[in-house]
Amino acid sequence: MTTATLTDWAYPLAESLLAEPLPRRWSHCLGVAERARAIAEILGPDAELLEAAAVLHDIGYAPDLAKTGFHPLDGARYLRSVGADERVVRLVAHHSCAWMEAEARGLRDELEAEFPREEEHLADALCFCDMNTTPDGTPTNPVDRINEIAGRYGPDSLIGQFIRRAEPEILLCTVRVLTRVSEVKAGTAQPM
Q: pTM of the prediction?
């Protein structure tokens, strides 16, 4: 008998919540998980944790889970309620600079009280994966992704304003992850 892994659990759960009602969102999550696998070497034992969080990061959009209208919080609350690994829960709660959007929605204190932030290298990695994946799941770059989000929601919308405010941090996450990838490939990386 084989032991189920975290990803063995995460993929079917995300699929059950997103594939039918939100197929494009499901494609995005699969692409984000693919990006996570591509940078697994920089995370060592945390690679599977990142992949599980990547495939689950947008489940808060699922119609059955959307309670507050803030998908990181809704997704994290659901994951906690079903007994998910607490580190995955925290990554989902805080993915891609969610604290900035939470602040704009008046939910930052609530988010941070319920869900402490995960280690920076993991938060950076998930942000990198999300912001380098199109809504259809294909690879992109963070500048085009930010422009796509601002264009889809409108520059004056809460999301449009949030993503522009988060842009410098998103770009810094990308730099930190790509630097780490380069260091690992060159054999100069320090242990995490």
A: 0.95
Angle ∠(141,146,148) on CA atoms, nearest 5? 95
Report the sign of the C-alpha dihedral through residues 145, 108, 165, 87, in that order: negative
The tokens for 136 are 């259809």
Determine the Cα–Cα distance for residues 17 and 25; give it in Å rounded to an integer. Answer: 10
| Nearest to 169, CA basis, from 76, 99, 87 | 99
What is the torsion angle, in degrees rounded to the nearest 10, for the CA atoms of residue 39, residue 43, residue 48 and residue 53? -80
First to last CA, the chain: 33
- Separation CA 62–CA 59 (nearest Å): 5
pLDDT digits (tens, 9 = 90+) for 114-146: 999 999 999 999 999 999 999 999 999 999 999
Give the integer Cα–Cα distance in Å for 139 and 167: 18
